[in-house]
Amino acid sequence: MTARALIRRSLSRHRRPLTGSALLLVLWQACEASVPVLIGLVIDGAVVTGEWRDLAVWAVALTALFCCLSYAYRFGARLGVGAAQLEMHQLRMEISEHVLAPRGARTRLLPGEILSLATSDAEQVAVGMRMLTHLLACMASIGVGAWALLRIDAGLGLVVLVGTPVVLGLIQLATPRISRHTAEQQETIGRATGMATDLVRGLRPLKGIGAERTAAARYRSLSEAARDASIRTTSSYGRLSGLSTTLTGLFLALVALVAGRLALDGEITIGELIAVVGLAQFLAEPMGSIGEISARLASSFASAGRIATFLGTPPLVLDGSRTPADDQPQLHVDGVNAAPLDGLSLQTRAGELLGVVVTDPAAADTLVALLRGELERDKRTGGVRLGDVEYDDLKLDALRRHVIVNRHHADIFEGTLRSNIAAADEPHLTAVLDASAVDDVVALHEDGVDHATAADGSTLSGGQRQRLALARALAAEPRILVLHEPTTAVDAVTEQRIAEGIRRLRHGPGSDRVTVILTSSPALLAQADRVLLLTDGRVSAEGSHHDLSADPAYQAAVLR
Amino acid sequence: MNRNLLPIASTRDTAHLAWQLLKQHRGALILSALAFAGAGLCGVVAPWLLGRIVDGVRDDAAESVVTQAVIGIAVAAVLGGILTAVAASFLARAGEPALASLREQVVDRALGLDSGRLEEAGAGDLLSRVGDDVRSIANSLVEVVPLLIQSAIAVVFTAGGLFALDWRLGLAGLATAPFYVFALRWYLPRSGPYYARERVAQGERAEALVSGLHGAPTLRAFSREHQQVDRIAEASNAARGLAVDVFKLLTRFFARNNRSELIGLLFILGTGFVLVRDNLTTVGAVTAAALYFHRLFNPIGALLVLFDDLQSAGASLARLAGVARLPQPEPPTATVGGKPLLRMTGVSHEYVEGRPVLTGIDLEVAPGEKVAMVGATGAGKTTLGAIAAATLAPSSGEVTLGGVPLADTDVRDHVVHVSQEVHVFTGSVRANVDLARPKATDDEVRAALDTVSATPWVDALPDGWDTVVGDHGHPLTPAQAQQLALARVVLSDPEVVVLDEATAEAGSAGARSLEEAATAAIAGRSAILIAHRLTQAARADRVIVLEHGKMVEVGTHDELIASGGRYAALWEAWSAE
To answer: Is the pLDDT of residue B577 over 50?
Structure first.
């Protein structure tokens, strides 16, 4: 989809409210343009004549105009805002659903960047949609003003209609300077506030080293830069505002000169003179708005382009059509080359706890991506099979039914310990809490397993988060579970408990479940049925933890 | 959860503080006020002279009346423009430095907060103050405040102009004021709570989005993505509903403004009609009055709409003032010399009353001695470390350094604490390290990086140690981040170091090199090591096993192994062969 297509789609799915909104806003602006004309008419038709009846008639007319103006705006704007808010919501959901699709999305964007797509870019597109209706309205009011002016006096009308855009154009000449200053100001303020939040987030390490003064001094220099940029921006805003005061004032003087002479010559009435002057003042508004709106539309267009590109990114994993013939398929890695993996082959066996020691962290990351099915086909040779089916042809549901690959990073969600773990039932929950040593965490809180967790688990320590993520993986009871460094933030005592717990929970007598643990922890490896050592991207040694312990390469890799 | 938020200053205190900051720029402030007033005066010249033209036309006056009036309008335009520019510029010269001092003071106090207090308030509270509140005021100072002042001045002077034309026309205009006030008093009490709810709803929406985006891989792995999509939809829809409701309220407010505008026009035209009929004033004066009032539509509208912005900027200001007015930490009173001994006597601590985390700890760390602390999660290791580093004051007991109570010393000159949190500060690698000693020379910083074996990867970065790291910068592994923290220790060169699980996050291969870096960083210093890997404990001079807040075993590695107690069991599990 292109930016243009996305905008067209946005407009067409809110066609009715937008059309209604545009019509009402056109009416509103036409009424606004008529106010100065009507003031002239009241003075001409009632104040000058001194007839009570005339005054009553014109007062009713003025009231009718205001009613029309007020209601037209109220309902026109509401229709537009309603449509814009709905569109924003729809775009936001499309973006979220794209990322959270079962197949994922290969977006290569950071979460923060996607967040800004889903909030500010979606808003830009929706606002742009509304701006189009306002653009029509501005054009309508200029039309009405022009018509009134030309009817009063063709020459005078031309002076106003040509002069106003010229004045606005001159003012516009100053805006690139302002936008440069504003951008600079926003950037310096952004940098200063960015530093302040960064310092607060790192307050403990900062205080641990006693660097508060230094940090405050560094902040001060950024704050002073922001101050100077702000002074420049405000001053240039002031100059712009002054320039516009001067130019519109001079233009008004010109109009007054021409219109005053015409009135003196009796060519136009006093009411018309007033209408001309009032219109000359009023028309600057819609003309100015057109300039602003076009700038706004340009940025909506850019936002639409970003969203369209994002929604077009390919999925992260493939979704084939086959399911394994065996109902207890094993994982087979067949000669995978994908830097730094170099001809890696391995198979899981029913019921085993397999330890995998990887010397190169990058190789471990690649292996995890491979087992998740997220390693692109053109970035590797060889592949992974589940039973007799290549991942590339495998139905996503089948993969999900058999295998869970738990990342090293522990994502904790807002809710409770219980909701994060999501165990099937209470006895199973108890068993999982024990195996993952989360029961230590539960014991710390009065409300136990119903203790609230903040978004991103920010109220928990690193070790607690890690154990909670482990508990979730164990509670899901997958037939094949892959764990990546599950205990790096856990103390030695607890690590020992967890190692025994995983064994007890998943590998009791007769169990055919498979657990693959990528780790260098001796406590975990000691529990494994089989251990593979990966060096230079392939399996270089295989055996039990005990057997391998004599191997110097293994000793070097496994920390003790 | 009920949080004990940081203080918010009262209106009085906020105003007092704002005045304290502004009065240092009194000259600029006065000049700005004078220029604003002058610009306002120039603004009322045009409608008045237009009225003169109308009268001239009615009286069939000479053309010179028109010409003079036009010249007057032109002069007022030029003068008004210049004064507007001058006023804004002087306002910036007064306001911006005052705001800068305020935010610097806020950050200064924020950095002085003790971490316990910060935890009570939640980091989010402080983050939103130093971030959103500062930004909101900075933006409003550029756009809202000048516009507000201009509008207010336009309103005041135009009202004055109405009275100057004819006091009865003035009264007619003034009679509109109550209608505007009614509109505002109808709107404000309704809009405030709505805006607050809208902000909360937007916060929840962002929260749902962020956790969905961050957690997407996990959600997909566990087939839970639908739940999160539903949560986002719910939050987004709630925010949408509120935004629409808020806007409906706003349009009803605008309708009330339109009504006031109509009433004002009718008052003025009606009064003018009567006055002209009775020959008490001229048609030109009525024209000028009507034009005056028509010109007021925009400034009055701006004033009313900006009222919201002003209120929210005021709220932000009060939140900043609350932090800025916090007392400054007391300077240390005692100094410690030489290679001091760290002694803890009868130290106990409880975060929540009745739930002791540490009880009766007596510990001496001799100069140069390395003490390793071992124990399960929740045994009190981190708390003990924080107390030893004076990051936390114990509930009872005493900690001294070289015989001086720790709290009275210039503690960071002697004791450095590397906590569990790994944080990479946004900025260059060099700036991350020399935070510990900003005046350090290149050679000294390089030596510190060498000591912790960080030089090879630092040199391999795109711009060497000038490479920007941290948020949006070049990503570092947790092990590299921790190496920078250790380099800071080396550069800071303290006598005592407390290292809390400093190698925890490193994972497989990284942990080994990190352990070596830690060993190098604490060489020649006293150290308390909160050990994760038992290898660290094995290398220490003394090992302490903590259990439920008590020291249950103390001795060298070999002694404890020989005694066959808890440590020996742990070691056996750890080195199982």
So the answer is: no
Helical packing angle, A270-311 and A212-264, nearest 10°: 140
Best interface-test mutation with A: which of B377, B414, B419 has the largest number of A CBs within 10 A? B377
- Cβ neighbours of residue B466 closer than 8 Å, sequence gap 6 or more: B428, B429, B430
In the block, residue with structure tokens 């805003």: A237
Asked if B569 has any chain A CB less than 8 Å from its own CB, the reply is: no
Cβ of residue A433 closer than 8 Å to a chain B Cβ:
no
Interface test with chain B among A209, A316, A490, by most B beta carbons within 10 Å: A209
Count the Cβ atoms, other than its own, within 10 Å of residue A15: 10
Measured CA to CA, the distance from residue B378 to residue A491 in angstroms comes to 10
Total domains in chain B come to 2
Which CATH number fits the domain that encloses residue B563? 3.40.50.300
Tell me the β-bridge partners of A422: none
Q: Is residue B309 a part of any domain in this protein?
A: yes
Is there a single domain that holds both residue B299 and residue B438? Answer: no
> Do B160 and B127 lie in a common domain?
yes
Decide if A253 and B374 are in contact by the 8 Å CB cutoff. Answer: no
Answer whether B246 touches A (CB < 8 Å): no
Domain with CATH 1.20.1560.10 in chain A: 3-187+230-311
**Same domain for B346 and B320:** no
Cβ of B225 and A102 within 8 Å? yes
Q: Which residues, including other chains, have CB under 8 Å from residue B61's CB and lie 6 or more apart?
A: A264, B55
Scan residues 162-181 of B and list those with Cβ closer than 8 Å to A: none
Q: Do B104 and B144 reside in the same domain of the chain?
A: yes
Cα distance between residue B504 and residue B560, in whole Å: 24
pLDDT band at B1 (very low <50, low <70, confident <90, very high): very low
Question: Which residues, numbered 292 to 331 in chain A, qualify as contacts with chain B under a Cβ-Cβ cut-off of 8 Å?
Answer: none
Cβ(B389)–Cβ(B498) below 8 Å? yes
Is B506 within a domain? yes
DSSP letters for A496-560 = HHHHHHHHHHH--TT---EEEEE---HHHHHH-SEEEEEETTEEEEEE-HHHHTT-HHHHHHS--
Q: B237: which chain A residues are within 8 Å (Cβ-Cβ)?
A: 89
Is the minimum CB–CB distance between A547 and chain B shorter than 8 Å?
no
Q: In this structure, are B317 and B354 located in the same domain?
A: no
Both B432 and B470 in a single domain? yes
- Write out the residue range of the structural domain in which residue B416 sits: 342-576
Indicate whether B337 belongs to any domain.
no
Within-domain flag for B550? yes
Mean pLDDT, chain B, rounded, equals 87
pLDDT tens digits along B143-182: 788 888 888 888 888 888 889 889 999 999 999 999 999 9
Residue B499 DSSP SS3: strand
Residue A136 tokens, joined:
């029509």
Specify whether B289 is located in the same domain as B392: no
Average pLDDT, integer, range B529-550? 87
CATH number at residue B94: 1.20.1560.10
Is the CB of B507 inside 8 Å of chain A's CB atoms? Answer: yes
CATH level 2 (architecture), domain A331-558: 3-Layer(aba) Sandwich (3.40)
Are B346 and B241 within one domain? no
Cβ-Cβ contacts under 8 Å, B470 against chain A:
198
The ipTM value here is: 0.85
* Distance in angstroms (rounded) separating the CA atoms of residues B354 and A477: 39
CATH homologous superfamily of domain A3-187+230-311? ABC transporter type 1, transmembrane domain (1.20.1560.10)
Across the range B382-405, mean pLDDT stands at 90
Give the residue from A148, A160, A153 showing the smallest Cα distance to A255. A160
Q: Do A245 and B81 touch (CB under 8 A)?
A: yes
H or E segment to which residue B415 belongs:
strand B415-418
Cβ of B241: how many Cβ atoms within 10 Å? 14
